[in-house]
Amino acid sequence: MKPFSFSRLVLNLAIWLAALLWFLPVLVAVWVALHPASVQGSFSLFAPLTFQNFINAWQAAPFARYFMNTTLLVLMIVVCQLILATLAAYALVRFKLKGAGFIFALILLQLMISPDVLILNNYQTIGALGLRDTLAGIALPYFASAFAIFLLRQTFKSIPLVLEEAAIVEGASRFYILRKIYIPLAKPIYVAFALVSISFHWNDFLWPLVITDSVNVRPVTVGLQLFSAPEQGVQWALISAATLMTVLPLLVLFLIFQRQFVQSFMRAGIR
C-alpha cells in the first residue's frame, strides 16, 4: 500500500476539478435540451423531461442535409488522406530517394503552419479551379496530411525489411506488399488517425464558411452557426439540442475506438 501523499491528493483534486469545469457546459446543454423552457432556470431534479426540443431543432433547419454533407465531406477527406499518406510514407521509407530527409522536413513544416493562414491562397486556388461552393472545394486543401505521413512513416520504419524481401522473392509487387504487409500491420495507426481527422473536419468551421454559399453543400457546423444567428432569436433549448445532435456522432465513435486511439499514439510516440 502506497503511503499517503498530500501533494498527490492535491493533484488529483485539481485534475478532477479541471475535468468538472470542462464538462460543466456539456451538462448544462444536456439539461437545457431535455427540459421545457418554463423550468430550464430552476434546475430542479423533479422537472419533467422532454425530447420535443430535439424534434423542433431538427425541423427548424435542414439538419438532415447538413449531416449528409458533413458525412460525405469527412469520408472524402479521410479516404484521400489515408491513400496519399500511405503512398508517401512507403516511398520515404523504402525507396532510395535523393534528399528524402529534406523532403520529410518540408512535409513536417506543414504541421507548423496554421490552416487559417492559407485561407486566402486556398480561396483563390479553389475559385480558379471552379470548385467554389462544392464539397470537393472544401475537401481539396486537406487531402495531403503531414500528420498522417509522419505517423505512417514512423510505423513503416518499424516493420522488418525481411518481410518485404521475402515477398519480393515470391514475386509480389510493391502494391501487393503494401496491401498485404504494411497496411495490416499499421491498422491501429489508421484507426487513430481516422478518428483525429474525422473529429477535426467534422468540427471545422472557418474554411467551410468562407468557401460555401448554399445549403446544398454546407456542413453541420456552418448550419449550426446560422441556426443560432441572432436574427432568428436566441432559443437556448433548440440551440442546445442542435449542438448535442452535432457532437453525438463523434462521441459515439470515440467511445467505440478509444482503446485503439490511445494505444496507437503511444506506440507512434515510442517509435
Brief summary:
This protein is an all-alpha fold and 271 residues long. Helices cover 71% and strands 0% of the residues.
Give a structural overview.
It is a multi-pass membrane protein. The chain crosses the membrane at residues 9-34, 72-93, 100-123, 135-152, 181-202, 236-257. Residues 67-257 form the ABC transmembrane type-1 domain. InterPro entries: MetI-like (IPR000515), MetI-like_sf (IPR035906). Keywords: Cell inner membrane, Cell membrane, Membrane, Sugar transport, Transmembrane, Transmembrane helix, Transport. The protein has 271 residues and is an all-alpha fold. It folds into two domains: 1-49, no CATH class; 61-269, MetI-like (MetI-like fold). The chain has 13 helices and no strands. The chain has helices spanning 6-33, 52-60, 63-94, 100-109, 119-128, 135-139, 146-157, 161-169, 174-185, 187-203, 206-211, 220-227, 236-270. Helix 12 packs antiparallel against helix 13. The protein is globular and about 75 Å long. It starts with 5 loop residues before the first helix and ends with a helix. The model has no long low-confidence stretch (mean pLDDT 85).
Name given to the CATH homologous superfamily of the largest domain: MetI-like
**Tally of DSSP helical segments:** 13
Low-confidence spans: none
Helix/strand structural class: mainly alpha
Supply the CATH class of the largest domain: Mainly Alpha
Order of helices and strands: HHHHHHHHHHHHH
Protein name: ABC-type sugar transport system, permease component
Subcellular location: Cell inner membrane; Cell membrane
InterPro entries: MetI-like, MetI-like_sf
Membrane topology: Multi-pass membrane protein
